[in-house]
Design brief:
292 residues, alpha+beta, Double-stranded beta-helix, seven-stranded mixed beta sheet, 22% helix, globular, binds N-oxalylglycine, binds manganese (II) ion
């Protein structure tokens, strides 16, 4: 893919290089395990708004250091799922295919991640950014894909923009489970995470740009027959996840990614030997603002 002309690196107090035209930049020469201070923090935030996906290369953070770095960008979010032993997920948890015995297993991976989504859209106040720090990655594959729904929105026809301008979609934990054929939500989880409603066309709170805010946590579109709504959701998702709007990240050990959930859909690719190769990434999520 063509890459935009290199950003004037003097704009930033670290080395930064765009990866693709649809987003993504790699940052080198910055150790984010150390406290960063307000100037670097603000520059990272600027880069985040410009590139949507930041990949800090060659990092080595402990879980505590990851929590500390993450908190520069807002409040850490707790997770809905439970560990196999019934305990809540720790605030810095691990996305992995390793089972309790430490061995790779296809059963362990969260299969929902293989479907396009934006994190926690089933919350009234969803995630601003998700951060993944690669600790172990397969020799080949195990990639994560990102689709830029701001570009997807811009490329829609005027008719479609008019059609969806005022639509609202219901998102829920229950629908999320159903949509991916996962174990159904328990009554307790449904009570804990009741359905929420968000605009289909979301305005990015920091840039004012319009984005398509859907993904596999969506149950239906309000005020529209279910099958018509389902067809529209599919059409919009198929459009905004076309190759021309997608960046596929091939992980290296030490990568620390942070991405903007307010304009990106993302998914894991099952393109590795899930049952034999090891994949472990440490994860934190920062709470955002209510979509409008
Ligand atoms: C996530 C997620 C994808 C992956 O952590 O929110 O969707 O590739 N991960 O592990
Ligand atoms: Mn996710």
């Amino acid at each position: 893919m063509q890459v935009a002309a290199a950003t004037n690196s003097t704009d930033y107090p670290f080395d930064i290089k765009p990866i693709t035209d649809i987003g993504g930049a790699e940052i080198t020469g910055l150790d984010i395990s150390e406290p960063i201070g307000p100037d670097i923090r603000d520059a990272i935030m600027r880069a985040f708004l410009e590139f949507h996906i930041l990949i800090f290369r060659d990092q080595d953070l402990t879980k505590d250091e990851q929590a500390a770095f993450s908190e520069n960008f807002g409040a850490l979010e707790h997770h809905v799922g439970r560990l196999a032993n019934g305990q809540p997920f720790p605030i810095v948890h691990t996305v992995t295919n390793l089972g309790p015995d430490g061995k790779p297993s296809a059963k362990t991976v969260s299969r929902g991640n293989y479907h396009w989504h934006t994190d926690k859209s089933y919350h009234e106040v969803p995630s601003l950014t998700t951060m993944l720090h690669a600790k172990e990655v397969p020799a080949n594959g195990g990639d994560t894909q990102f689709a830029n729904t701001q570009l997807g929105y811009e490329a829609l026809s005027d008719e479609m923009k008019d059609r969806i301008a005022d639509l609202k979609a219901e998102h829920s934990w229950e629908a999320s489970r159903l949509n991916v054929g996962a174990e159904p939500a328990s009554e307790e989880q449904k009570r804990e995470r009741p359905p929420v409603t968000h605009p289909v066309v979301r305005t990015h709170p920091d840039t004012g740009q319009k984005t398509i805010y859907l993904g596999h946590h969506v149950s239906h579109i309000h005020g529209m027959p279910r099958d018509e709504g389902a067809a529209l959701i599919k059409e919009l998702e198929d459009h905004t996840t076309e190759d021309r709007f997608v960046y596929t990240h091939r992980w290296r050990v030490g990568d620390y990614a942070m991405w903007d959930n307010r304009l990106l859909l993302h998914r894991a690719l099952p393109n590795y030997e899930v049952g034999t190769e090891r994949r472990q990434l440490h994860r934190t999520v920062i709470i955002g603002t209510k979509p409008f």
